[in-house]
Amino acid sequence: MKKKIALSVNAGSSSVKVSVYDVEFGQAPVQLAEAQISGLTSPPPTLKYVRDGKTVIKAKEVDDNIEGQRDAFSLLLETLVEDEDLPQIKSKEDIGIVCHRIVHGGDYSKPQLISNETYEHLENLNDLAPLHNANSLGIVQLCIRALPTANNVACFDSQFHSTIPEHIRTYPINRDIARSNKLRKYGFHGISYAFITRSAAEFLGKEPDEVNIIALHLGSGASACAIKNGKSWDTSMGLTPLAGLPGATRSGSVDPSLVFHYASDVGKLSPASTSDLHISRAEEILNKESGWKALTGTTDFGKITSSAFSSSSSSSSSSSDDDDDDHEVMKLAFDLFVDRICGFIGSYYVSLRGKVDALVFAGGIGEKSPQLRAAVVDQISCLGFQIDDEVNNKNEIRNVVEEVGKKGGLDEPRVLVVQTDEQFEMARACAEDAEFWSKEKDKMMMTWRDDK
Ligand SMILES: Nc1ncnc2c1ncn2[C@@H]1O[C@H](COP(=O)(O)OP(=O)(O)O)[C@@H](O)[C@H]1O
Ligand SMILES: CC(=O)OP(=O)(O)O
Ligand SMILES: [Mg+2]
Known about the structure:
Oligomer: single chain
Bound molecules: adenosine-5'-diphosphate, acetylphosphate, magnesium ion
Mean pLDDT: 93
Number of strands: 14
CATH architecture of the largest domain: 2-Layer Sandwich
């Protein structure tokens, strides 16, 4: 069967990552390049570009015209098409498939070729993932216009969690309303959890359906997942990606009544609503004006960690009151995150009846913060997890999976870091599905909509 050049587009809440692959039906995708813009919630955003495994641009600040995920994607596409040393994409017509990460996929249990019908269905889910879905659909629209020869495929964060049992995914509310309004736990970061499950299983020398894992995807959005026999059993995000752990601008779980005591008129539509996204003030406060940003003034957890661990606190006579305040609040944020993460680990450990092969750290924070990993594992040492300080403190995690825990007895759970790769996972799913290779594009493809 034919080969195609595929782009995998991962629009996160603070970044857009695009990887380019050579894909052949039924084969593992081969990565040619990866470009990303991060720091969208802590400007200036920065561009990183890697081709053939070599860093071409390390961290270039890009100007303020990048207003969001769609602008970031345009710049990334331009970077790829204009790179003369990437001969596989001489022009936009060389791109055959674009895989899009769509966070909320509702009831979809497999990736979908994007037709008018799928697009409209997904548009109806925009309000259930206010930091993600409308941005991703904006990128889909842009691809339809800019890449007329490509098939667009939607891959869903929620898909991996379709195995969560009913007693876990059900909210204790009126059943008729729950059914008619489709109010249940969906769960997100599932593309990442699928990658983590396969990679961790391979590392542990087991089949994916033999492993029990507690996985933590800790990035701008953070979640935990209990994986039983290779399938999602429970996860911390819910109907929307707001529930569970706090994030860069998200509160995570709070008392549902809190928002009514936070401000008046929280039920009204926010002035920031658009034709694509209807968001109440309450949702805006909890999704965009909370989390690390509200608590500390920064969305960068790297900054929070270094300040929390700096010694510029009370012991130093030269430190200013401001430094002390900064240190205090950063330490509060760090300790709060550790507390919430350990709460989920304890709960999932019991839910998995103590049969846990490994705890996995992933996502920007999970992969880059040895301090956070050490603090979490220290707090759960009563469950048999132990960190190996020497390996954990190494400057950089280089392999896809690295063990940062002490190898104890046969029954002792392991501690791993997985460099998750949502773009690869999406390209892999597309390469395996004959539908995306055989359908006639003209029949399926939706048309550009002038209202976008
Ligand atoms: N050295 C570091 N230590 C702790 N956290 C870090 C470090 N570097 C980056 N991060 C965090 O990782 C986050 C980005 O994670 P990532 O998973 O790439 O984001 P996204 O959720 O947009 O996909 C940043 O917001 C930052 O807080
Ligand atoms: C679902 C989610 O929160 O994703 P991200 O962490 O990429 O923003
Ligand atoms: Mg992400």
